[in-house]
Structures
1.
Amino acid sequence: MDQMQALFLLHEGLAQCGPGSDAETMRAIALLPSLPPGARIVDLGCGTGRQSLVLARALGPLEAVDIHQPFLDELTARAQAQGLAGRVATRRADMAAPGYAPASLDLIWSEGAIYVLGFGRGLALWRPMLRDGGLLAVSELSWLVDDPPAEAAAHWGQAYPGMAGVAQNLATARQAGFAVVAHFALSAEAWLDGYYGPLVRRMAELTPLARQEPALAQALDETRLELDLYRRHGQAYGYVFYILRKSPHDPSRQA
């Protein structure tokens, strides 16, 4: 088992793979400008798809994309159980190249996943897939203070070197060819109740296996450290939802 396999295993069976909640997803949905009839919606990096189900209920049919087939299988089963099978299709693909034609999507949604690509790179890769005026709703790990505690800065400087503050991310979005519609920080409950609570129970289930799997043991140790860090310094950082609209100008064609 390698490190990526360990992380996938850690999150299998969970309703979500990162901080968030149905309430936070609905808050972001409420901030969206009107979508056209029959809007084509894609949830990139959907994981096990908690938010995909919320989107399907609130907005209509969508396609959920992830690289890990067991996550997609879990989402399919949950969609069927909740009477949403006709509204949630899945696609196994890499977020960096999901295979959508240029200007073919009305809304790209992505919760807690763009960090895999990096915020600026993700925006640059996904913008061409949106129609003119298309929308991007993405949550991204962001600094919430200008001068974060040294311990938090050291941890995230190693774990996510590209992590930036809200103002910098807004500037990056504008430079990437988006207008900012709205943004807000997720609540502490979205971390502690929505994500870390179930994750701690999952870690307990996997502890016996971790004794034989070094990569899994490392993943559990790193998750415990991350949880402890958030409990002590969570006021300094968090996930921020950025609701963006594709601007007419193409930044790649600027001189």
2.
Amino acid sequence: MKYIIIGLGNFGASLAQKLTEEGNEVIGIDRNMTKVDATKEKISHTICMDSTDEFTVSGLPLKDTDIVLVAIGEDQGANIMTTAIIKNIGVKRLISRAINPLHEKVLQAIGVDEIIHPEEETAERWAKKTLSA
């Protein structure tokens, strides 16, 4: 499958690496060149760009991508703007990361296909794992 992951922080970079290891084609995008450099050997492709620039985003191979995942976590505004731009362009499946309940409501209003909460989901999985040990 083909993925575009926007935001190469801890979550985005880890996910991009795992998907690449599983044989998927992954384009990892971040506006921070340090993060792009740190992942360029671990994932299929990396691009340093501002995902809130509609013109630049429109140059990505979005129509040929199975899943676009907006993993931006620290900058809610950039997450929302990026998600809205991609939703407006249109993709097969759009997943975005929510930071808090209000952020989730905004993403729902935009109409993303799925909203993820990596920290909560990991905490829940670990709570179950430690309770069953």
3.
Amino acid sequence: MQIRMERAAAYLKDSPETKIYEIGEKLGFVSTKHFISVFKKYYGVSPTTYQKEQRES
């Protein structure tokens, strides 16, 4: 799971045009809701918030 989350973070940082559901699908998550839930548990913020923070920094 750690590798999947690190890849998700990299996609969010490096490819801001990629949709959240597309990243979840690429990483093998069946539902976007589950992907967002796991990401939030791992990083403490939603993928959208993480992506915004990365753009601002």
4.
Amino acid sequence: MNDYSLNGFLDTVWSHLSRGVADRKHPARHPTLATIGPDGPELRTLVLRGADRADATLDLHTDAASPKYAQIKADPRVALHVWVPKARLQIRMRGRAEMRQGDRDVFDRLPPEAQANYGGPAPGTPGNKPDGTQGDPARFALIRIHLAEIDALSLGDTHQRALFTATNGWGGAWIAP
């Protein structure tokens, strides 16, 4: 059973997000990102590359030729979802995404196999499987999400849910599960 204080609950959320960055096997490593596309909401799984509690930001990567890049440029409001099965913890987050295309410092730190994802045909283009083309730093984009809200739900023996907001200095309030 998890019996959290509000501060303890927020600490737990950030602990899982940080572990998702550092541990390839942690479920927070692969959040689901929601954007607003021309036909409505769009969802996809990405890799969590950075989590900074002090700045309340999360970093992800994408190809600047992808539909999600255009969707975020058109409307930077995004949402993220993480499910941590062992902890029975759902983390839903909302924020505004900032796009940093061609960030050479970040691109150069990627392994060659990851760099290769940012070149060749645009994502979603019909055709052959990727050929291992060398990556193009101009196609690489860092998505930095400035969080505005974290909604955390623990489904342990005692269901507990809290809402934390940036406008409240990340103070939280218990809400009905």
